[in-house]
Structures are given as C-alpha cells and as structure tokens.
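User: Now give one protein:

AI:
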Amino acid sequence: MMTLIQLCIEFFKTGLFAVGGGLATLPFLYEMSEKTGWFTEQDILNLIAISESTPGAIGINMATYAGYMTEGVIGGIMATLALVCPSIIVIILISKVLDRFKDSPVVQGIFKGLRPASTGLIAAAGLGVAKLALLNLDVYESSRNILDIPDLPSILYGVIIFACMKKFKLHTLLCIAISAAVGIAVGF
C-alpha cells in the first residue's frame, strides 16, 4: 500500500513538472529509478521501446508500464491517473484565465521561457537514451579500453534508421516493426 501511495506521488510530481510531453518525463523516471530502485536503466530503455511502439501518448504509456512493473495492474492504473491528473487541473485553470491574459507580457514571457525549457528536457532525455542505447559503458568499466565505449552496430543501425526516415519518409510504425524484426534476427 505504501509503495502504491509513493508511486502516485512520484507520478503526480512527474505529471506536474514534465513540461514538454512524454520524453520530458524521462529525467523524472531516471531520478525515480535511482531513488526508489523500482526499475533499472535497462528497464527504462525497454519502457521507452514499448511506449514508442504502442498506441497512445508516450508519457502515459511509460507511466502505465512503470506502474505495472512496480505494483501490477493497480499500479499501472494509478501511475497513469497520477501522471495525467496535474495536466487536467492545469489545463482547466489555464483555459479559464488564458483568454483574458493571452496578450499579457507576463504570459508571453512565461511561454517564451517554457519553450526552451521543454526543448532542454527533451534533449536531456534523448541524450540519456542515446547513452544507454549506443554506448557500452559497462564493458568499458571492466576493460578500460576507450574503443569499447561505442556500440558500433547499434550506432550504425540508428544512423540507418534515421537516414531512411528522412530520405524515404518512412512511417514511424514501419521503422518500429523493422527494428523489432532486426533486433530478433541480429540480436542487438
């Protein structure tokens, strides 16, 4: 019961402060992982992969999966509700006052400050994922050989997927399906 309450508190805080969408929740998940031990960095990578490949908003999918990992079905439901509750409250409050103050220099300043903050949160999350997915830091720790740091097959595959998405305008779902098949076949 105590874990369920803590889960709700952690995801409520995440929902309240993760400005910028689903990927902006990643720094909070990393912190939650360190603080509670509910999941590992590898679990977070799996969480991202599952959340990206399932329908719905990535932040909500991550909360559902993390809650499920921690406290089963009830944990998944409660983490999801705790994550979205602050957004609902804030949107209702903002909608009530924004029309009256949308031209205010203070409101304009708030939005100008939130845009780069959102970008920074998403970039930090992206770099964290890239570190885990593209580097072999655990291998380097034991070998101390700098050449062991990059996971060259994963980097090459990431570049290929990126280039294919840009050049051929491949749909995200197709890239996810291809990546899953390649992962099974090659064993990334």
Residues 2-102 form one domain.
